Amino acid sequence: TPAFVAGGGRATSTVSVNMPSNGPLYGVVGRSDRDHLIMNLFYLLCGSGLLTVLLLPWDEIHGGALVGPGKWTQPQKTAFNALQRSAFGLCFVGLVYGMFCGDLPLIAKPLSLGLWEPLGKLSYGAYMYHLVILQVYVAQYKSFVNFYPSHLAFVYLAILILAFLTSYFSYLMVERPFSVLWAKLMAKVTRGLGGKGRR
């Protein structure tokens, strides 16, 4: 809405914009009802894509019902392995965009709770260590194993817990001591440079 204020002895024109409170980009984008519908369909597609990437491998366990009778063919397995990470990443980024815009508060608010902060700090270490744990687990098998849903869920959960526990102990035994040592070293260097500057 137009408004006029006095500034520097002359009248200057300013425009005040009513910014909606449901997202930092919403007022800038200025979406119409049609845009809302398109974005909601986009978020639905992203969520469906994530679920597809996560749940489609379970179909192989049950005999390949979604992709035809019997087990997956090698071309189907190759296509899934080639596209799953890219598809997961694109769908995930789409949902993150929706949370940043304030369009997905039911997802954004629970993920903004403080209880996720410690896990977030350990997540990179867990990512690095889970590969080692997974390799150790797989190396114990001498032949192919028939996985069942309950067994696979247990393996996922066990590797997840072990990865975060390993990351936590790595923080206690490696990262934190070196962080303290680095802080003391930098403090000493800073004091030394300060002493030289006073001379």
Q: How would you portray this structure in words?
A:
This protein has 199 residues and is mainly alpha-helical. The chain has 6 helices and 2 strands. The chain has helices at 26-29, 33-61, 74-100, 105-111, 116-139, 149-198; strands at residues 2-7, 10-15. It has a two-stranded antiparallel ribbon. β1 (2-7) and β2 form a beta hairpin. α2 (33-61) runs antiparallel to α3 (74-100) and α5 (116-139) crosses α6. The longest helix has 50 residues, at 149-198. The radius of gyration is 27 Å and the shape is flat. It starts with a strand and ends with a helix. The model is unreliable at 1-28 and 62-69 (pLDDT under 50).
Number of helices: 6
Q: Main beta sheet, described?
A: 2 strands, antiparallel
Stretches with pLDDT under 50, minimum 5 residues = 1-28, 62-69
Q: How much helix is in the residues?
A: over 70%
Key terms:
6 helices; two-stranded antiparallel ribbon; disordered N terminus
Task: Briefly say what this structure is.
With 199 residues, the chain is mainly alpha-helical.
